[in-house]
Design brief:
about 15% strand; about 240 residues; five-stranded parallel β-sheet; single chain; globular; alpha/beta
Length: about 240
């Protein structure tokens, strides 16, 4: 889509899966949707992610302080109760024999140990560092910088306009709640992000487990493997 600026928008998730980074790679501008309400009950992908635990899925979770009132992601605070030490121990136990664990342990562990009790800033720091390591040239910005009061689809449209976008790259599930005709009326093309079929050899399992945190791929095939096998390999299909 030559000359049409592509904009991706997503909440700042915790150590996201590969599809999240594929969306960043496909975007010219990626907006961290940090000024929307965090869910009041349970956990979301803003504070948890799945990893491989002896061939089974298990969650790494960031404990957060939840308010009874309306609370935004960028106002959410992390509870520093020793969760980082536990997370590092869990990763050590499950990935220490992975091919690239020793190569990138320090890099990943330093990101996890990052001192910031703001959930949004903590997550954005991780995502930004990994994106840079993957050589992405996407411009990363925060929705809170634009002070937009519109909600739902209108908010997304306003954000795309603020960064002078012509194409909105939605998540694959966005068609369930977005009003496509509103994008059309505003001259914005709506397309959907889809991670291509991609599997790699994972430690401690013979059957590939999809949807895990990107750290699973980093420890198993390394950054160069990721760049070559997922991004460079699909360069011809880049939007």
């Amino acid at each position: 889509m030559e000359n049409d600026k592509i904009v991706g928008i997503h909440q700042p998730n915790f150590m996201p899966w590969l599809g999240y980074f594929y969306k960043i790679w496909q975007s010219d501008v990626f907006v961290f949707l940090d000024d929307v309400q965090i869910i009041k009950t349970g956990s979301s992908y803003t504070n948890r992610v799945e990893i491989n635990n002896n061939g089974k899925r298990t969650y790494l979770t960031v404990p957060i302080k939840k308010s009874k009132d309306f609370s935004l992601i960028n106002e959410t605070r992390i509870i520093n109760n020793g969760w980082k030490k536990k997370a590092l121990k869990t990763l050590q136990q499950n990935y220490s024999k992975a091919d690239f664990f020793n190569s990138y342990k320090d890099f990943i562990f330093e990101l996890i140990s990052f001192e910031n009790d703001n959930l949004s800033e903590y997550n954005i720091h991780f995502i930004t560092a990994v994106s840079q390591k993957l050589d992405f040239d996407t411009n990363l910005v925060k929705s809170s910088d634009f002070k937009i009061e519109a909600k739902s689809t209108e908010r997304l449209i306003e954000l795309v306009k603020k960064v002078e976008g012509k194409v909105y790259l939605s998540g694959s599930g966005g068609d369930k709640y977005q009003e496509k005709e509103m994008f059309d009326k505003n001259g914005i093309k709506l397309i959907y992000n889809k991670l291509p079929e991609f599997q790699y050899k994972q430690i401690k399992t013979d059957e590939f487990i999809p949807g895990l945190s990107i750290i699973d791929a980093i420890f198993n095939i390394g950054f160069e493997g990721l760049k070559n096998e997922l991004f460079i390999k699909n360069e011809k299909d880049k939007l």
